[in-house]
Amino acid sequence: MDIELLKSNIKSNVYHITKDKVVALHKHQKYDEVFYCLKGKGFGVLENQEKELNVSDVFVVRENTMHALCSDSEMWVASFLIPVAE
């Protein structure tokens, strides 16, 4: 495994999820996704369950797993797409 290549392929973003924002269920091939709740509260959603997210909570989604985010108020999350090592 080439660690430098792995590091250069990690993608990060910050999302602001409001009560009106619809994030459709989706999945990522060849990437796991890690969400870190920065502010507010909401839910990490899988096909058949929800995980409550509060500040400093982490939500991990494995490759090819349907997922989304939602909030009854507002939530800010950092997202990291991490390539699955082969």
Explained architecture:
The protein has 86 residues and is mainly beta. It has a single domain (3-83), classed as Jelly Rolls (Sandwich), CATH 2.60.120.10. The chain contains 1 helix and 7 strands; from the N terminus they run αβββββββ. Strands 1-7-2-5 form a 4-stranded antiparallel sheet, with no helix packed on it. A 3-stranded antiparallel sheet has the order 4-3-6, with no helix packed on it. The longest helix is centred in the N-terminal third of the chain and has 6 residues, at 3-8. The mean pLDDT is 95.
Quick structural summary:
By secondary structure, the chain is mainly β. The protein is 7% helix and 53% strand. The strands form two sheets. It has a four-stranded antiparallel sheet with strand order 1-7-2-5, with no helix packed on it. The chain has a three-stranded antiparallel sheet with strand order 4-3-6, with no helix packed on it.
